[in-house]
Amino acid sequence: MKHIIKKGDIVLIITLLVLSFIPEGIFYLTGNDASIDRTYAVIQVDGKVYKEVPLSGHHGTDMISIDTDKGHNLVVIQDESVGITEADCPDKICISEGFVSKPGATVVCLPHKVLVEVKSAGGDEPDVIPAH
Fold this sequence. Notes:
Blueprint: H1 7-20, H2 22-36, E1 39-45, E2 48-54, E3 61-68, E4 71-78, E5 81-87, H3 93-96, E6 106-109, E7 114-120
Antiparallel strand pairs: 1-2, 1-7, 3-4, 4-5, 6-7
């Protein structure tokens, strides 16, 4: 009987698999931890900055009520994360997005033109869009 996979092939495959995880380890050790330490939330209404709130070191719960001619939103800062917990828009997708805390993450209420974005104070934001 002929062996299709040889011992050397298995060693090569295992070596390549181990090497493929090295970039992930480097990004985890250098990128994520450094940028999360100095984060803040930028709340925009109709494309204009409404308020900036520091997230790093924030403890407790703060509420920011946004009332415009388009509707009502309640932005909640809870510990080091931010989210929209109340909205009178018809679909309420912004509420289901939950709380976010990593730089680049956003919560959006399109009918009311409200955008909540987490940014890094050091300017070292990652060049990726996080997927859920």
